[in-house]
Amino acid sequence: MSQYDVIIVGGATSGCYLARQLASKGIKVKVIESCSEGKAGRFDIVHIRKADFKTFNLPEVHEGDGIYAFGFSENSISSPYNDVHVPTPDPIVGVHFPLFISRMTEWAKESGAEFEFDASFDSVIFKENKIAGIKYKKDGEIKEDYCKLLIDATGMKCAVRKQLPSSYGIETTTLGPNDMFYVVLYYLRMPTPDVKNTGWANYKTWIAPASSDPYEKIFGIGACNSFEYAKERYKYFEENCPDLPKGTLIKEEVGTTPYTRPPYTMVADNFVATGDAANLTKPLNGEGITSSMVQMDVAAKVIEKALKKGSCLKEDLWEINTEYNKGQGADFVFLRALMTKLVKAKDSEFEYFFRKLQKLLGKLMGDPDAEVKLTLGDIMGAAGALLGGLLTGKVSFKTLNAALDGLSKGNKLKKLYVNFPKNPAKFDKWCSKADKAWNKVGKMT
């Protein structure tokens, strides 16, 4: 039994990143990870924006180090019929995910964070009805460690959060089929090296490199409901997207990622949720490695202040909610609401949108982490294009109404999150408003 300032359950990218941020401030941190060292990571390859290595001061990867797989900078978002391509130039680095997590682990250790692998979270220890530590399984035994603050970075399992009492002040519900993307990655060898890197928002499908070999590509798709449905959607994509070269399957990987809003509060007494355990993924593609780091940078500063004060109650941690929600959080809820309403548009309607709204689409889809600022000109241009589509029969009234409804509900949600209550006293009233707003948005299906 040991005493720590902070215990983090989960040692993938989120757990490692926050451990580094806290330990570098002199905070005593322990990370509990259920996998063996070097075995964490759902996929072989993940793509990270090159700019994010500098933004978040991540450990650099270099060609020949075994972690770095490739780099590329030419990207676009394509229309359903492949006639319109909106450039989204953004240099990307491909890394071997398990090896990158191992590097992140060493990076956190360099700052003083302690790790324990093959250690499976069992339960939360409470003292005077407040979190005081954890029990975990190691080598067939139940062990105990104590802490002033417990952090859930267990990914979609939400292993800690879902075990908390419903009265603890934070949502404990688990994700259902319509709250996540079922992701299927097809590693293919293409007949030509000239296949462009692009994505199709309407199909929720993308093409990106799989290795330094220009003939090897990943064709990925994400869809709600099930892996079977995602594969059906991929077949539809193959059959209906013109000029799509066919490749030879090398291997297939599957995984899931959250596709729903974060819990209304990400903190409770002596507790913080982060990463996929807090549903901090990008609304356009479901990725969450670096978007979670935005929240964790806020969390590290707030946690440091709370520990110096000697109290990590929800009031002391509340600033994590307010600071995150007035920035990226507000942008993400806007995009999530808009995408949820637009998802049922027909392929021909998406094609029309791409022809008429290239500038707006570039703004919404270009930099996934940039603040979404729609000008009056953007809104008027979108309204004009939608009305023109309705008058010419290119857009149905149903889709027009859905697009306008998405913009309206997205803006209302963004305003609500920007004005997240500054303390827990007004939180229940805010939740009532948020419930009504999200119920009107519905689920991505």
Key terms:
single chain; 445 residues; alpha+beta; 8-stranded mixed β-sheet; 5-stranded antiparallel β-sheet; 12 helices; 37% helix; 24% strand
Protein model, in words:
The protein has helices spanning 13-23, 50-55, 97-110, 227-240, 291-309, 314-317, 319-342, 347-356, 358-365, 376-392, 397-418, 427-441, and strands at residues 2-9, 29-32, 45-49, 68-72, 76-78, 85-87, 92-96, 114-116, 119-127, 130-138, 141-152, 180-189, 198-200, 205-209, 216-223, 248-258, 267-268, 271-273. With 445 residues, the chain is α+β, with helices and mostly antiparallel strands. β5 and β6 form a beta hairpin. The mean pLDDT is 91.
Sheet having the most strands: 8 strands, mixed
Annotation, overall tally of beta strands: 18
- Specify Rg, calculated over alpha carbons: 22 Å
Termini, distance in Å? Answer: 46 Å
Helix share, percent? 25-40%
Amount of beta strand: 15-25%
Mean of pLDDT:
91
Q: Segments where pLDDT lies below 50 for 5+ residues?
A: none
H/E order of the elements?
EHEEHEEEEHEEEEEEEEHEEEHHHHHHHH
Question: How do the helices and strands line up, and which of them pair or pack?
Answer:
Blueprint: E1 2-9, H1 13-23, E2 29-32, E3 45-49, H2 50-55, E4 68-72, E5 76-78, E6 85-87, E7 92-96, H3 97-110, E8 114-116, E9 119-127, E10 130-138, E11 141-152, E12 180-189, E13 198-200, E14 205-209, E15 216-223, H4 227-240, E16 248-258, E17 267-268, E18 271-273, H5 291-309, H6 314-317, H7 319-342, H8 347-356, H9 358-365, H10 376-392, H11 397-418, H12 427-441
Parallel strand pairs: 1-2, 1-11, 2-8, 11-18
Antiparallel strand pairs: 3-7, 4-7, 5-6, 9-10, 10-11, 12-15, 12-16, 13-14, 14-15, 17-18
Helix pairs in contact: 1-3, 1-5, 5-7, 7-11, 8-10, 10-11, 11-12
